[in-house]
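Try this one yourself first.
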């Protein structure tokens, strides 16, 4: 089941998946940052008794100082990254836990560890997704459930994300970019190995460790070099 806002894109993707893999791919058009769209999606997931995997993937970025940006956009990001993850994960776990199988992947970001300025709500909501997933992992382990949760924390990945954000991808060094397929492969390998946290790519694993130890004063100096901050159209 594919869920997003643009029905034409979903229909085309569903056809492509059916043709390529011989599966029945269904889709619904829903804005997960809006109450009605989220309620419909949650009800649908709650009714999928054969649900195997939920991927909370929908997300977007913003740029600029928090106070200077649109409050509506900041709130929309929190509804999508936080509240949609809460509602859809709750619906999914109530199907998966009684069955004792399946997984939830929450697509966070390596920004959960960077916590940079200019990107405040994004880093905060992606950190929240990571901490939320860690807590669920602990609960499932305590319950000895076979159900798995994973916080997937990618770095720069080729997709439409930076186009939507209005950042020129050419302004970011080519060696920093990962293919979406490679990110997905590492995530699924993480599910096989029962890892609750997956940071695809060695460079980003090192980055996450370093950034969580760098003192604030040094982080301020590094901010000026933040490629996302510099890479404007
Ligand atoms: N690309 C990167 O460098 C990168 C790095 C780290 C983490 N991530 C995370 O990876 C996830 C996937 O992003 P991506 O790179 O694939 O970006 P993308 O190409 O822009 O895809 C975002 C997807 O989310 C959907 N979406 C956005 N807002 C939505 C809403 N309100 N309701 C329902 N669906 C919505 C979009 O479809 P519609 O527009 O049709 O709704 C689209 O399918 C995001 O959570 C992002 O934060 C990306």
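Now uncover the answer:
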């Amino acid at each position: 089941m594919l869920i997003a806002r643009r029905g034409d894109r979903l229909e085309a993707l569903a056809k492509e998946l059916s043709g390529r893999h011989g599966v029945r791919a269904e889709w619904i058009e829903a804005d997960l940052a809006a109450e009605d769209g989220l309620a419909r999606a949650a009800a649908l997931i709650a009714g999928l008794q054969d649900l195997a995997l939920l991927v909370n993937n929908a997300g977007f970025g913003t740029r600029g100082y928090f106070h200077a940006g649109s409050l509506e956009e900041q709130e929309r990001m929190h509804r999508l990254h936080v509240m949609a993850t809460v509602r859809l994960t709750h619906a999914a776990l109530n199907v998966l836990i009684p069955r004792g199988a399946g997984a939830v992947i929450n697509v966070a970001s390596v920004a959960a560890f960077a916590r940079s300025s200019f990107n405040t709500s994004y880093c905060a909501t992606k950190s929240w997704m990571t901490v939320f997933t860690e807590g669920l992992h602990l609960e499932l382990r305590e319950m000895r459930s076979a159900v798995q949760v994973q916080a997937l924390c990618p770095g720069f990945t080729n997709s439409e994300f930076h186009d939507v954000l209005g950042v020129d991808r050419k302004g970011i060094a080519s060696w920093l970019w990962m293919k979406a397929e490679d990110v997905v492969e590492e995530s699924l390998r993480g599910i096989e190995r029962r890892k609750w946290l997956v940071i695809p790519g060695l460079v980003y694993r090192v980055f996450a460790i370093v950034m969580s130890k760098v003192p604030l004063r040094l982080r301020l100096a590094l901010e000026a070099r933040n490629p996302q901050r510099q890479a404007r159209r």
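Discussion: Strands lie at 2-4, 27-29, 53-56, 103-107, 148-152, 197-198. The mean pLDDT is 94.
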